[in-house]
Specification:
4 strands, alpha/beta
């Protein structure tokens, strides 16, 4: 929120694409739905305090179209989808890396398995056509 306030104070128009349902209707916020999982998985996701966005192509396109630059948080699915759309529009993308794959695989008790973690990093890199080592 500090970054958003700062950019606005500098005269920039900021559009926020998120799954924070409490932001619905607020100016500058474009809210996608949350994923609904089977009950047992949904209970666990809520327990760990995670909100997982379900990308909605119309909302994502509306938010991104006409932007000068798009900043996404990877490796989450909404950020990956937004990157794809921004690339289609030839809009530059900057990114923050929200979590290491080991944070995700730890929930599966697989965070110590190097091959699984390497697979997820490769998936993120290929999916987003990222240019990092």
């Amino acid at each position: 929120m500090n970054l958003i306030r700062f950019l606005k104070s500098q005269g920039h128009i900021v559009r926020v694409l998120c799954a924070d349902q409490n932001k619905k209707g607020e100016q500058g916020f474009f809210v996608v739905p949350n994923y609904n999982f089977p009950k047992i998985i949904d209970k666990y996701v809520k327990k760990v305090g995670v909100t997982l966005a379900k990308p909605d192509e119309n909302i994502v396109r509306t938010t991104i179209q006409g932007s000068d630059v798009v900043h996404v948080m990877l490796p989450l699915m909404l950020g990956m989808f937004a990157t794809k759309i921004a690339n289609e529009y030839n809009i530059p993308v900057t990114a923050g890396f929200h979590m290491q794959t080991e944070n995700f695989t730890a929930h599966l008790k697989a965070n110590k398995l190097k091959l699984i973690n390497a697979y997820f990093y490769k998936f993120i890199k290929i999916r987003n056509k990222l240019k990092y080592a």
